[in-house]
Design brief:
The chain has 200 residues and is mainly β. The chain has three helices and twelve strands, in the order ββαββββββαββββα. The protein is elongated, with a radius of gyration of 27 Å. GO terms for molecular function: protein-folding chaperone binding; unfolded protein binding. It comes from Chenopodium quinoa (Quinoa).
Length: 200
């Protein structure tokens, strides 16, 4: 049979002397986008239970987990009285979902802040350029750089990071680190010209 449930159950009382097995933990993978915006996940769990005829049958249950904006790796969501094989004299145990963050190809999360690395050509690093910075919650943000970009140069954009878990309206910062792409080779004439310019 299929059962759909949203939210935790009422805690079982041990006044009857019945035992409760240890909780079962399962990882709940979320993308950075899901942890930024929040989302709803429906997860099916199965357990073996005794039917009224005394036979063991498998019962499927769909649990609804509401992921809130700003949740972090390690956040735990407990559903009480869900999982484990039911035995005589034993209550069904709890299931705990532990949030884990999937690897993101662009951004790295540091608490509420996000870090992003961008590589630009050396000529742009020395002469300035217009850039489009990708954002996690939006599309892109344009910016003009006029100062010289050196390896390790970093620029911070306030309020463009992850929502705070306790106050989703407050967001962390986006820290953009610049990498300078040097040319693979130079002619003797180019070397001489660069030496002349930089020497002066």
């Amino acid at each position: 049979m299929n059962v759909s449930r949203s939210g935790p159950m009422i805690m079982f009382s041990n006044s009857s002397g019945m035992l409760k097995p240890p909780a079962t933990e399962k990882q709940l993978e979320c993308t950075l986008e899901e942890l930024y915006h929040g989302c709803v996940k429906h997860i099916k769990v199965s357990r073996d239970v005794f039917s009224i005829t005394g036979q063991i049958v498998q019962e499927d249950e769909v649990l609804t987990v509401n992921i809130k904006p700003g949740w972090k790796t390690g956040t735990r969501i407990t559903f009480q009285g869900i999982i484990k094989e039911e035995r005589q004299g034993e209550y069904p145990g709890d299931i705990i979902f532990v949030v884990t963050e999937k690897h993101h190809p662009l951004f790295r999360r540091m608490d509420d802040d996000l870090e992003l690395e961008i590589e630009i050509p050396m000529v742009d690093a020395l002469t300035g350029c217009n850039l489009y910075i990708p954002l996690l919650g939006k599309d892109k943000m344009s910016m003009r750089i006029d100062e010289i970009i050196y390896p390790g140069y970093e620029k911070t954009f306030v309020g463009q990071g992850m929502p705070n878990q306790k106050n989703p309206h407050h967001k962390g910062n986006l820290k953009v680190k610049f990498l300078v792409a040097y040319p693979n080779s130079l002619t003797d004439e180019q070397r001489s010209e660069i030496f002349r310019i930089l020497s002066n």
